[in-house]
Specification:
about 25% strand; alpha/beta; globular; Rossmann fold
Length: about 200
């Protein structure tokens, strides 16, 4: 019996590791829209998206507060920054200027005060690809703390969090996914409009 439990736990650990290393299908779906220039992989974790982007010739900055994978990513050609975005839980410790990145990718991370800064730091016509967990995910595992889960429709609302920026939503989804593991998510791809137009307001 102990052997069966041990084997099951080992299998679950392997599946979790595979899920962590898998490239987000949402990122893959919209990666062809990334313009030339520097791409920020925010809260990059193990660096799965940074490595994938580097493989396709993108210039990448990998940011995370943990140094574990940053040295390896630097050796592979990424610019790296060890930085704590949440030194104050109520504000954003944002180190970048406006109009700095051609694209920003965020997966499985949520710190609400960051949203206006993310939008501001995109260059005109820059692309934001964002995917993370939403309320109800506790039924499927972690994260389960509501503080780290998006409320219904919140990711769409956050595209209007910076009144100086006009974001054109290209794609948005909210609901259940079964892979890489069962979860409730919201995900969006949006473009920072270079100028206001009727198209951007659709």
């Amino acid at each position: 019996m102990l052997d069966i439990v041990s084997e099951l736990n080992h299998s679950l650990a392997i599946n979790d590791a595979c899920a962590r290393d898998a490239i987000s299908p949402w990122v893959q779906r919209f990666s062809h829209l990334l313009p030339p220039g520097l791409v920020l992989d925010l809260a990059c974790g193990g660096g799965r998206h940074s490595r994938w982007l580097l493989k396709f010739g993108h210039e990448v900055m990998s940011l995370d507060r943990h140094p574990d994978s940053l040295a390896s990513l630097a050796q592979q050609g990424a610019l790296v920054l060890q930085h704590d975005l949440e030194s104050d839980a109520q504000t954003a410790n944002w180190p970048f200027a406006d109009n700095f990145f051609s694209a920003i990718i965020v997966c499985n991370y949520l710190h609400r005060p960051l949203f206006p800064y993310l939008l501001s730091s995109l260059k005109p016509n820059g692309i934001l690809i964002y995917e993370t967990f939403s309320l109800g995910n506790a039924d499927f595992g972690k994260p389960s703390n509501p503080h780290f889960l998006l409320r219904s429709g919140e990711l769409l609302q956050q595209m209007r969090s910076n009144l100086a920026v006009n974001m054109q939503v290209i794609g948005y989804e909210e609901g259940f996914i079964s892979k890489p593991k069962p979860a409730l998510v919201q995900r969006i791809c949006a473009r920072k409009a270079a100028f206001s137009s009727g198209i951007d307001l659709l």
